[in-house]
């Protein structure tokens, strides 16, 4: 049934935001490069707040430097601060790369960061510089999603030049642009690709750095990440695989590699659910020329089996899904698959591509009476939720108050997850990740019924 | 049971204790000359030659770009710390989304929402003007006005506060004129804070701006004198983990009347009549001493420094408060309360002491906690080998006697110093000159704080605004038994195999203040310093390489 567009109640102020700021995304992406240090050009508070948020989620060290603007640099420019910061970071950390993201402050005063970096590189005694990769990330443009992909693109643009086209392609090597997945997802992805006999240059790769082991010796920068040299080889890969139907509609790193280096781009949805994971594995079959390994066939079988057995719990139920656009689109497709209707898909992002992305991910949803809202905050979601009669909420931990107001369970996925342990170890993707999500969703619905039952049944 | 007096005399040095002077040289050796010179002033080995003299320390100076510190910004100190814990002011962040989002119920301030007459509690809400490109170019005042109206329509609050973020000052939005206009339009108190993130050297600048704003717009606006005897204000207690609830419980038991707390578990009406109290008690000197000073000048309330972190310190502070009022019944009642509370504390302490005694702690936190928590560690028989503040000033380290010697630099000059005078009608000195002298003779110090350094042992290492890099290094060298800081340091410290106790958020536990809080702290620290998790660090194949080899051959 086709339903006319509904308009949301209009508020000028943002009340309980459902998005994070742009430089956070860039800092996260830079944290996935081996030996790299992110540097925010602006007030120290931005680096502190962003570290605080990333660390609370991943429960790992996250070092982000700042150029520490003073009132004076806010007026006269922060070029000297940036140069000082670069010099001091190199001396303490000897980083393999420095990722420089701007903030609202440096953007508002119109800092010429590339110019400052050129001046710095030309200073006497500056020595052999690590790559200095700059990305523009004012928080008044876009959200953390845009910041993340802009940083990935800046890395590719700076390091994987057109020269790579002339070099012999790297056989059986693909580029993987996973988007903002969890370290656990990234580990799983690498394993899947390896099982197809492919090697992947995954950008970024914070699997180890943001979910690492105890140190046996002091490490100034946590080990792990995409090697800088590997980014330089991305132009030689046989293909690029990127996830995200919103990202697919944007000129990102994948397009950059296709245009500058001629690397074919496969743009897929996040591999959540059977259809999307099938599409991913099919793409890997095509690229590698190998059939899907039997272990994955078995996983798929178990997942379908669980869908069958769990159908009675989820079918016809209604969900509110919120968070970063591409994650919501991926989840919506999976939910549609299991008959749990994503009656309200919400994001604080405002890419203008959210609806299209959801409809691409799950064409069936275009015919359903669901609301898709972008540029929305939690208070507005709460207002809309009154008419959704939702049974369950799926999103990040900032949905807690919404869940409490609606008295419905919240299944925590994505970022941030600050009020549960193991945020970095949530697995969302592949057949295995989907199965885990499915179990969690089913069990949340069961627990809700059991907790509200007076009898206290042992069987649910 | 161990005598507390003896605990304080415990030797700091154990055999593995490295030479702090050498560590200092190693710390600054990594920096270029100019930076090294600056850091050398901020890293001090405590030595006391004559009684009152502690070494001078560099503090409240701008962090060198590229040294990853733990400091927040001016906005964080203003909105997040001082005004965040007040339940019935609607706080609106004027700026792009990040700042509002990151300060949304992030600190662990608790509040009793039912304490106010209307049950208003806006702390769980995050209001932001969420500035976009358009406002950066054309100005955001219109959007701010609309946001204020919406906040009013939503909640009909008594007051709305507006907080400026970095771009606001730069694009020239005049939040104060917007606030005046909206105050007239809505008929409620609306006031703004120019706390752009780049101002000052740390969140400390934001505290000062918040103090000024509250003093200008709220304090003294309601002359109704609350009922009750022995009226006090508690300044610089933010009710992290319910600390203020425990302190309030003790105040009630003793018979004090708490007029207002700045700003844990507070409401705006309490601030409005806080000038009617008899004395101001200052807990966190750094964040709130400005209010104490200004209230003394304008209204005649003296202030004394107190500390409710540590059972002994709590008892001492309560006695000081009772002595101030010079009332025998009150003095007796306070003694009764202390006598009733201490046995439970001592029982637990005696059980735990054998498992904590002799262990070594480091504290790098805030502008008061790095000092106050040394008391609790002393009670556990633990020594503080190194400590420092994130945003303290020299007076917080060396005592207020150094105030006249502190040079005003460009960053401090930019923060307004309010010119305050005695109010023609509201000024009323609470104590006569003779009474003040009498109390001073009994050892009650007014408007005085001795700072952290006098309380520390000779040879301990004091580091202001410690960087992540320096943190890693001193941990490697000292291998303390526990490190106290915040979430940003927690996981890197724990990667070294050292437990980190969060003292900003209490690891989401607490309270740690007062008598019951001390018991909680003893138990929590005991668990952490005796955790057996570290024994798993080495895997069997690391312990026995030949075993691994055997498996590999098979």
Set out the fold topology.
The complex is a heterodimer of chains A (460) and B (554).
Chain A: E1 14-15, H1 22-30, E2 36-41, H2 44-58, E3 65-66, H3 71-76, H4 79-93, E4 97-102, H5 104-108, H6 113-122, E5 132-135, H7 144-159, E6 173-177, H8 183-195, E7 199-202, H9 228-232, E8 239-243, H10 253-261, E9 265-268, H11 274-288, H12 294-314, E10 318-322, H13 325-337, E11 341-346, H14 354-361, E12 371-373, H15 378-385, E13 392-395, H16 400-406, E14 410-412, H17 430-451
Parallel strand pairs in A: 2-3, 2-4, 4-5, 6-7, 6-8, 8-9, 10-11, 10-13, 11-12, 13-14
Helix pairs in contact in A: 1-2, 1-7, 4-6, 7-10, 12-17, 13-14
Chain B: H1 4-8, H2 20-29, H3 33-42, E1 43-45, H4 74-83, E2 89-94, H5 97-102, E3 127-128, H6 133-138, H7 141-155, E4 159-164, H8 166-171, H9 175-186, E5 189-193, H10 203-217, E6 231-237, H11 243-254, E7 257-263, H12 268-272, E8 279-282, H13 285-299, E9 303-305, H14 311-325, H15 328-356, E10 360-364, H16 369-379, E11 383-388, H17 394-398, H18 410-413, H19 433-441, E12 461-463, H20 468-478, E13 482-485, H21 487-495, E14 500-502, H22 514-529, H23 540-543, H24 545-553
Parallel strand pairs in B: 2-3, 2-4, 4-5, 6-7, 6-8, 8-9, 10-11, 10-13, 11-12, 13-14
Antiparallel strand pairs in B: 1-12
